[in-house]
Write a structure and sequence with these properties.
Elements lengths: L2 H23 L6 H27 L4 H24 L7 H6 L2 H21 L5 H24 L4 H33 L4 H21 L4 H7 L1 H26 L3 H6 L2 H43 L1 H8 L1 H39 L1 H6 L3 H53 L5 H30 L1 H11 L20 E9 L7 E10 L4 E5 L6 H8 L7 E6 L2 E2 L5 H7 E4 L10 H5 L8 H10 L3 H6 L17 H13 L5 E5 L7 H12 L5 E5 L3 H5 L3 E6 L2 E6 L1 H7 L2 H11 L1
Parallel strand pairs: 3-8, 3-9, 6-7, 7-8
Antiparallel strand pairs: 1-2, 1-4, 4-5, 9-10
Helix pairs in contact: 1-2, 2-3, 3-5, 6-18, 7-8, 7-10, 7-12, 7-17, 9-10, 10-12, 10-18, 12-13, 12-14, 12-17, 12-18, 14-16, 14-17, 16-17, 22-24, 27-28
The chain binds adenosine-5'-triphosphate.
Pfam families: ABC_membrane, ABC_tran
InterPro entries: AAA+_ATPase, ABC1_TM_dom, ABC1_TM_sf, ABC_transporter-like_ATP-bd, P-loop_NTPase, Type_1_exporter
Organism: Cynoglossus semilaevis (Tongue sole)
């Protein structure tokens, strides 16, 4: 917009506006209804003329300008309608006449500009993209909200019961002020015993109904009222279902997901967001319904007492709603920031507690304390800001409420004097009024909060709906699996570090009944090969074939029974030795467990333990030595009768005697495909095929004899091992 166009638009608008303003004053209007109709007609004409003039001169009307035009055009009509309602006795044209005064015009211009400025400062217009994003976000929130409501389906009977109590409570509660006013009127006028008694009786009954269904303070209503009890049950059962569903979805995710996602984030969603999602949606809907019924009921009763005073009171609503809206938006933003900062602090604590030995050995106590301290200070800062903001918004709301009360008392006295109201009805009105403001504020808050409360649900659904990158949809379960494995030109980078290729065009063959040893420098990619065979990750290029079928076409459970791995640092779960060996199997007999333990050379030491196979291993197998843990892990792999056995440096924690016994036992298993990662020459030598992997590529392959004669990278490696 050029400066000249702006000036032209302003001059044009001024001319049009003043013309319509003075034209209205010149129209003679007999009687109130005609006068008000003409007034509103001119208001609309003024709005249309101003909008058209601005559009013609500027090309388009910005939203801010449209707000100014709307306020400016409608203000005189609103003012005169209000004045006529409040001072019905005044002479027609008395006030309207004054409006055609230039001072009035200036007053309306100032008022509409200030209102638009206030709006602009408190709720600035977002740009088109941001507005579209906000609309999209609202739509998404609505969909998620409905999804939560649908997920509540098994609890609908409970929620229905809660709704009955809720309605009962609200209706009873609303009737009390009405009867209070009636009693005052009966006491103030000629005392009539029967009227007084029946009013007292109704008031007592309604109070009883109200307190049975709804406790008086909102904070205790959950535990005290019947409605609260029912809702608590519904929320509890919903949360339980959600936690189970989310846990199920999480355990299906690929390993890469857990590497790139912070454990704190996962546990936060599982333990807090599931609770918050059930609570916030259910409680917000409950409060929304309760407040809505109450507000509508109260406004109806207030209208029946005095519609003029009710209109006056309702003038407070837009201001209250606006202040509440601004407060809620900021408060929720701060609350989210606080949640993130709290999660950061608990993540820091969790990391230190689970790796306290590393922290100690690097003398990093101060550093960690500093990190934790910074997270706490950040949380505290956010808390303080939230508190200040709350105080300011409360102050504004209280002041608005106070002004409304003063106005209500002022006009109330006038209405009593003119006989339009009784003292009792003013008292009833005042009792309702004190509540109606709070209710409208709650209503505004709840409409926003109900949709925003699905923020927690959004986080829960994100994980619930996540399809694992490594699919588990395979169905193949052949009866006879030979265990022939081919790594076909694999290229792979870890999801947590996608720019670094760890395996490059790697091909490998593992034959049934043969032992293959993967050797090579540390970081060469041996464990990565094993992880891909276990389908922990999906390669970016190439594929692994098992009996000439892609690995991903095999049934998930079947594959993990047929391919068993024992890692460098086996993990045991708290429970008995038997539970650990039969881990994940539902149909495993004691004989099978013992047979596997014998093969793994674990039976003897298990027997020597106080409770044999029922001995508890402690958390993470903490009550066992590393070698014992290793042998139980081998038994856990063997009990599944796998066709492919992977041993990733298991011998590093076994003594020489146990090692050779385990090796012997494994080599005694007929037709099994054995893949071993080893650094000990004694283990490597026994392999039928040795594959040297370095830098993600196969550098050498063949038998020990062949490779030694070739004097390639394997030869150098063996020399190095000897030197060590
Ligand atoms: N989870 C992971 N995320 C990102 N990079 C990884 C991950 N695991 C391993 N790497 C990287 O991949 C490369 C190959 O690692 P890998 O564990 O396969 O080597 P390795 O030959 O088994 O070594 P070692 O003999 O020391 O066990 C290394 O550079 C390692 O840093």
């Amino acid at each position: 917009m050029t400066f000249a166009a702006g000036v032209a638009a302003l001059v044009c608008a001024l001319c049009v506006d003043l013309t319509v303003f003075y034209a209205r004053a010149s129209v003679e209007t007999p009687g109130v209804p005609v006068r008000l109709s003409v007034l509103w007609g001119f208001a609309l004409l003024r709005f249309w003329a101003l909008a058209a003039a601005t559009r013609l001169t500027l090309g388009r009307v910005r939203r801010l300008l449209l707000r100014v035009i709307t306020a400016h055009s409608l203000l005189p009509a609103v003012f005169e309608t209000g004045s006529t309602a409040l001072y019905p006795g005044e002479e027609a044209g008395g006030r309207c006449g004054r409006l055609a005064d230039a001072r009035c015009w200036l007053l309306f211009v100032a008022a509409s500009l200030s209102a638009a400025l206030f709006w602009e400062v408190t709720i600035p217009d977002s740009d088109e993209d941001a507005a579209a994003a906000a609309r999209e976000q609202k739509k998404k929130a609505r969909v998620q909200f409905l999804r939560v409501v649908k997920l509540y389906r098994p609890d609908y009977p409970l929620l229905g019961g809660g709704l009955v109590f809720l309605t009962l409570a609200v209706v009873c509660e609303m009737s009390i002020p009405f009867y209070t006013g009636q009693i005052i009127d009966i006491l103030g006028s000629q005392y009539q015993r029967n009227q007084f008694r029946s009013a007292l009786l109704f008031m007592g009954l309604y109070s009883l109904g109200s307190s049975l269904s709804l406790s008086l303070s909102p904070s205790s209503s959950l535990s005290a009222g019947c409605r609260g009890g029912i809702l608590t049950c519904a929320i509890g059962s919903f949360t339980c279902r959600m936690k189970l569903q989310l846990f199920g979805a999480l355990t299906k995710q690929e390993i890469g997901f857990f590497e790139v996602t912070k454990p704190g984030d996962i546990t936060n969603r599982l333990s807090n967001d599931t609770v918050r999602m059930g609570e916030s949606v259910c409680l917000n809907v409950n409060v929304l319904l309760r407040t809505f019924i109450r507000t509508v009921g109260m406004i109806t009763l207030m209208m029946s007492l005095s519609w003029k005073l009710t209109l006056l009171i309702l003038l407070e609503t837009p201001v209250t709603g606006l202040v509440q809206n601004i407060y809620d938006t900021h408060d929720q933003r701060l609350q989210l920031a606080m949640q993130d900062s709290m999660a950061e602090a608990s993540e820091a604590v969790r990391e230190v507690l689970s790796n306290v030995n590393v922290v100690r050995s690097f003398n990093a106590e101060q550093h960690e304390a500093g990190r934790y301290g910074r997270s706490l200070v950040k949380t505290q800062d956010l808390k303080t800001r939230r508190g200040c903001f709350r105080a300011v918004s409360l102050l504004v709301q209280r002041l608005t409420g106070l002004c409304t009360q003063v106005l209500m008392l002022y006009y109330g006295r006038q209405f009593i004097q003119s006989g339009q109201m009784t003292v009792g009805s003013l008292l009833s009105f005042m009792l309702y009024q004190s509540d109606v403001g709070t209710n409208i504020r709650t209503l505004v808050y709840c409409v926003g909060a109900t949709l925003k409360s699905v923020g927690a649900a959004e986080r829960v659904f994100e994980y619930m709906d996540r399809r694992p990158v490594v699919s588990t949809d395979g169905t193949l379960r052949p009866d006879d699996l030979s265990g022939h494995v081919r790594f076909n030109r694999l290229t792979f980078a870890y999801p947590s570090n996608p720019d670094r290729t760890v395996l490059q065009d790697l091909s490998l063959e593992l034959k049934p009944g043969r032992m293959t040893a993967l050797v090579g420098p540390s970081g060469g990619g041996k464990t990565t090969c094993v992880s891909l065979l276990e389908r922990f990750y999906e390669p970016q290029a190439g594929e692994i074939l098992l009996d000439n079928e892609p690995l991903k076409s095999y049934d998930h459970g079947f594959l993990h029974r047929k391919v068993a791995m024992v890692g460098q640092d086996p993990v045991l779960f708290s429970g008995s030795i038997r539970d650990n060996i039969a881990y994940g199997l539902t149909d495993c007999s004691m004989e099978e467990v013992q047979e596997a333990a014998r093969l793994a050379h674990a039976h003897d030491f298990i027997q020597q333990m106080g409770r044999g196979y029922d001995t508890e291993v402690g958390e993470g197998g903490g009550q066992l030595s590393k070698s014992e843990k290793q042998r139980i892990a081998i038994a856990r792999a063997l009990v599944r009768r796998p066709q492919i056995i992977i041993l990733d440096e298991i011998t590093s924690s076994l003594d020489t005697e146990s090692e050779s016994e385990v090796q012997q036992a494994l080599s005694g298993l007929p037709d099994r495909t054995l893949l071993v990662i080893a650094h000990k020459l004694s283990t490597i030598e026994k392999a039928d095929q040795i594959v040297v992997i370095s830098g993600g590529v196969v550098e050498d392959r063949g038998s020990h004899q062949d490779l030694m004669e070739k004097k390639g990278s394997y030869y150098k490696l063996v020399e190095k091992l000897f030197a060590e």
